[in-house]
Amino acid sequence: MHLMNPKFTLNIFHKVLITLLAVTLIPLCTLWLVSDKAAQRQLTANVSQNLVLTMNTVANGIIGWDNTNVRAMTQAASLDDMISMKAERQNPILSVTGTAYEWSYLMFTITPDGANVGRNDGGALTPYGDRSYFQQVIKGAPVGRQVVIGKTSGKPALILATPIRDASSTLVGVLAMSMYLTDISKIVTDIRIGETGRAILLDASNKVIAHGDASKVRTALQDFSAYPALKVAGIADAPVVYNSEDRQVIGFMRKLPQGWTLLVEQDYDEAFATMNRMEKDARVLIGVSVALVIAIAIFLGKALTRPINDLTAIARQLSNGELQVTIAQIDRGDEIGSLARAIDRLGVSIQLAMDRLRKKG
After folding, report:
1. Could you say which residues of the chain have pLDDT below 70?
2. Which domains are assigned to the chain?
3. Residue 155 pLDDT
4. What is the value of pTM for the model shown?
């Protein structure tokens, strides 16, 4: 004969525990979820706005610097001495303009067939017909640009080129200026968003012009064509969260008028550190609440079940004929006291009934 396992039933302790957990945790968790979503939306908006504002600051600095150089070259290219395409007339202008822009280290002119005419450094004339910036202007671009490695500095340098046209708008030559990118690099590298936020500037072929984290650039003009951010959909429309190398980041990308790419990004953990702290605090609060509810349930459960168990034992004694019992709960003013008094009366009634039976016997 196999003994049947007793069927599990909820006792008063279980019911008290479940009730307290439900009353405490359901509102608490609901409030946490609602407030967490609202806080996350607000924090995401703030992080995105910060990236956009940073992007605009860096982009405006780069565009302003570039426009200044283009205007200077356009004005110089419109002078009669420059249009003459004669070195003796061009060189004084090239020298004065180059001196005015201290970041420029070479200004020179090129004929439509690629021959070098004038230059401000007094150096030997060099053919430039195969250079990208020259070809761009010859093919009709209003401005030609090419980022190269400076022969003397070993650092990225920019060559700008603008057309030289005569009174009939015929292209008679090209004016070019080679300049250090120190100012551009400073604009990019000086940007800081927390500890991990940085800006990256790439040229039209995705070569690094400047990077806010120098440790990420192993060689000058390093190719960033495979950089994860360049392959993220929608990153040029609004800040997007994505994985970059071994970390999660939030970034925003923008194409500049020069054809360059500007990227601003920050590590996700830092950007959303406030949210992580809030979620951690909420989990701690819920854990403490659960522990407190269990402690209260244990206390209340024992306070309720101990007298009931005592009364159950007394009722069992009475049912076995043990009428000499002491009921301690009679003086209680609650339902347990009422039950105790009822059991006491039951004991008295049983005692009287047994006394009558004895007399009749």
Report:
1. 1-8, 12-13, 36, 152-153, 216-219, 361
2. 30-63+184-270 (3.30.450.20), 78-180 (3.30.450.20), 275-360 (1.10.8.500)
3. 75
4. 0.69
pLDDT at 87: 95
| Integer angstrom CA distances of residue 26 from 35, 280, 342 | 14, 18, 39
Amino acid code (one letter) for 150: G
Q: Are 266 and 193 in contact (CB under 8 A)?
A: yes
Tell me which residue has tokens 């067939």: 113
- Quote the pLDDT of residue 218: 66
Cβ-count burial 238-263 (b if 16+ within 10 Å, e if not):
ebbebebeeeebbbbbbebebebbbb
- Closest of 181, 214, 218 to residue 198, by C-alpha: 214
Q: Where are the beta strands (DSSP E) in 181-260?
A: 198-202, 208-211, 240-244, 247-255
Which pLDDT score is estimated for 110?
97
Instruction: Tell which residue, 261, 260, 231, 266, has the closest CA to residue 248.
Output: 266
